[in-house]
Inverse folding.
């Protein structure tokens, strides 16, 4: 089983560029999440989705956008990259209130 | 809003010994879940153990056990017979019960870096 797959694993962006972090899961989970992890910190929720077509903001949504057109995919979009968005990004999924399954993360540097 | 506090930024333990990681949380909820996640250098987030607040019995998973003190809002993790592979960051996390809204959102502490020495 692939579980939660994130691409790319690493990326360097220039200030002002845009990109999409991809996340897909093959477990038929209805809930999906995007977190960021800054150095020495825990994970903070950016956006989440409770099902296809439904998304909502988390704790730190500014500068990001998401969409959920299918159950499997939950891409995260950075429109105008800023140095403050340098972080490790994790996608996760869960079925109801079961524990969340995490992807391996994407390390993003903005220079 | 819920908060999770891990007061030990770093800890170390000798192989085969026992170590306890501390976690406290603040909430006005009565029904919720608590988790410990492990993040090894590979960066994966791995679920270690889960506790349901309405269950009085402390959760155990092999060498991992918790001491859940609901009144004190404390949720410590005990690792017995520590192994080199236990070296990792450990994160405590809180989640409101779905019946209370919140859509299964996790609130994480800042983590404790555990090093197991040979």
């Amino acid at each position: 089983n692939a579980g939660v797959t994130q691409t790319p694993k690493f990326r360097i962006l220039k200030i002002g560029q845009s990109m999409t972090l991809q996340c897909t899961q093959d477990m038929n989970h209805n809930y999906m999440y995007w977190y960021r992890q800054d150095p020495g910190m825990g994970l903070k929720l950016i956006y989440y989705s409770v099902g296809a077509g439904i998304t909502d903001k988390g704790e730190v949504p500014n500068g990001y956008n998401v969409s959920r057109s299918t159950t499997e995919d939950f891409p995260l979009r950075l429109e105008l990259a800023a140095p403050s968005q340098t972080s490790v990004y994790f996608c996760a999924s869960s079925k109801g209130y079961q524990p969340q399954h995490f992807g391996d993360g994407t390390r993003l540097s903005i220079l | 809003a819920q908060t999770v506090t891990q007061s030990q930024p770093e800890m170390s333990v000798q192989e085969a010994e026992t170590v306890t990681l501390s976690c406290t949380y603040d909430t006005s909820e009565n029904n919720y879940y608590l988790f410990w996640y492990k993040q090894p250098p590979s960066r994966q987030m791995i679920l270690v153990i889960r506790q349901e607040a309405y269950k009085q019995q402390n959760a155990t998973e092999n060498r991992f056990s918790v001491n859940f003190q609901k009144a004190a809002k404390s949720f410590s993790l005990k690792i017995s017979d520590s192994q080199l592979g236990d070296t990792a960051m450990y994160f405590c996390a809180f989640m409101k019960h779905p019946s209370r809204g919140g859509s299964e959102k996790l609130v994480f502490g800042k983590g404790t870096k555990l090093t197991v020495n040979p």
User: Anything to note?
Assistant: Chain B has a mean pLDDT of 92.
